[in-house]
Amino acid sequence: MLTILWWAPADSILVRAADDVLVAEDETVTEDLALFGSIISVDGYVDSDVIAFSRSITVSGIINQDLMGGAETVEITGQVGDDLRIGARYIDVRGLVGDDVIAFCQRFTLGEEGRVGGEIQVWCQKAIVRGDADGNLRIGCESAEIHGHVGGDISVDASTIKLAGSVDGDVELTAESITLLPGCTITGNLKYVSTQEINIQEGAQVLGETTWEKMVPKEKPKKLDFKPFLTFLKLAMLAAQIIVGLVLIAISRKQASLMVNTLTGHPWKSLGVGIVSLICVPIAALILMVTIIGLPLGLIATFLYLIVLYLSPIIVGLTIGGKIVGAFKNESAGRMVGGLILGLVILRAISFIPALGGFVQFLVLIFGTGALLYSRKLSRDEAREKGLM
User: Fold this and answer.
1) Pairing between strand 101-104 and 84-87?
2) Which of 44, 267, 283, 379 could form a disulfide with 23 if both were Cys (CB 3.0 to 4.6 A apart)?
3) In Å, how far from its chain's centre is CA 338?
4) Apex CA 238: angle with CA 282 and CA 140, to 5°?
5) CA–CA separation, 1 vs 255, rounded Å?
6) Residue 132 above 60 pLDDT?
7) How far is it, in rounded angstroms, from Cα 170 to Cα 16?
8) Of 59-68, 93-102, 246-255, 260-269, where does mean pLDDT reach its minimum?
9) What pLDDT digit, counting tens, does each position of 182-240 carry?
10) Between 353 and 298, the higher pLDDT residue
11) What is the pLDDT of residue 330?
């Protein structure tokens, strides 16, 4: 995140937003692409990175670098030259991914004609791997089927696992039911954790050592499932931040740009002001409220303090997304809106990363709060110089 704050984007970044966004079959794009729409289709050649958020993403052409984004359905029949980092409901890879795949989804499929040149890391409900992976394969899911060739190690944690392909490295499996189907060949060692012994069918073989650690089933106490509500709450909070950011841009694009320029132009002053304000303002407000006479002022300070805290991630999100799409060169409203949405989605995605997510959110509060408060000081100084105050 800190790298992005000081990163000056190239002038050649393209932003395309519409209901249907198409990179035509005969089209060649050399700039980085940020795509927003209901349906996104990349049928041509893109010699750079692509960031895409849509209901449906289809790649039948060539993306020479990374593909990152989110959608309900993602279908890769063409080529992604480098990494694929995606979150979706359904992901279907029937083409070539040059390096790593990192995916969060309900169902992940690597077709027979699909191939991944690096490592596959998938968290999903059901994973079906029929194609080949040159690197390691790491899956966390409910049900996993692996039929292709894996050039590295395999690590799978699921309820049921079926393994029918060939593995050059070691295999670690954790599941209630594990089956090695005919044609399965494990060159390395096999270590598995299960409630029952593995089912090795005729024609399957393990060339290394096999180790079984018996899983002791534990009765889990019944508890309420708050995950759907928490997911809804997080999406609602993201939508609310976007709406507040849109209002901020609509009221004053100049002030929004000033806050962003303060954060990028005075990062260390923003950091210092943010740390001091986060520590001192609550203490000062508490002291005022304890004195009774200063109670109204303490309540007002607390209210304003909470508003600043709420606005801080919006400012940082606008800074990150705006820098990516180049929104502040001419203070374009359209680009600022696109940058705001992109930046807030990035911050929300980072917040899901264990440990790192909480630390980044803390940094966002510090830098965002400091930039907002210090920008107000700069505005007052400018007004005094012009004799307006």
Assistant:
1) parallel
2) 44
3) 17
4) 110
5) 22
6) yes
7) 45
8) 246-255
9) 999 999 999 999 988 999 999 999 999 999 998 766 565 566 566 677 667 777 787 88
10) 298
11) 66
Query: Looking at beta carbons, which pairs linking 82-89 to residues 24 or more positions away fall under 8 Å?
Result: 83/118, 86/57, 87/349, 88/57
Tokens coding 99: 């390096």
**Environment class of 73 (CB within 10 Å of its CB; exposed 0-12, middle 13-18, buried 19+):** middle
What average pLDDT does this structure show over 330-344?
77
Quickly tell me which residue has 């917040």 as its tokens.
Answer: 351
Q: What is the pLDDT of residues 89-105, one digit of tens each?
A: 999 999 999 999 999 99
Sign of CA dihedral 82, 358, 224, 237: negative
Within a 13 Å sphere around the CA of 230, how many CA atoms are in the beta-carbon half? 5
Provide the pLDDT for residue 221. Answer: 57
State the residue for tokens 């079959």: 25
Q: 353 vs 5, which has greater pLDDT?
A: 353
Among 358, 335, 320, which Cα is nearest to 4's?
Answer: 320
C-alpha pair distances (Å), 19 with each of 53, 61, 69, 87:
12, 20, 17, 20
Spatial separation of the C-alpha atoms in residues 274 and 366, rounded to whole Å: 5
pLDDT higher than threshold 50 for residue 9: no
Beta partners for residue 15, in sequence order: 34
Region of 183 (left: φ > 0; alpha: ψ -120 to 50; beta: rest) is left
Contact 43, 22 (CB under 8 A): yes
- The string of DSSP letters for 230-253 reads HHHHHHHHHHHHHHHHHHHHHH-H
Q: Taking CA 385 as the corner, what is the angle to CA 379 and CA 389, rounded to the nearest 5 degrees?
A: 70
Q: How far apart are CA 18 and CA 31, in angstroms?
A: 19
| Closest among 319, 312, 331 to 372, alpha carbons compared | 312
Residue 301 β-bridge partners: none
Q: How distant is the alpha carbon of residue 70 from its chain centre? A: 8
CA 309 to chain CA centroid, nearest Å: 23
Query: Quick check: 19 and 38 in contact, CB under 8 A?
Result: yes
Statement: residue 347 has pLDDT above 60: yes
3-state secondary structure of 177: strand
pTM of structure? 0.58
Output the six-digit token pair for 377.
């000081």
Q: How far separated are the first and last CA of the chain, in Å rounded?
A: 37
Contact 199, 183 (CB under 8 A): no
Cβ density class 45-58: b for 16+ within 10 Å, e for less: bbebbbbbbbebbb
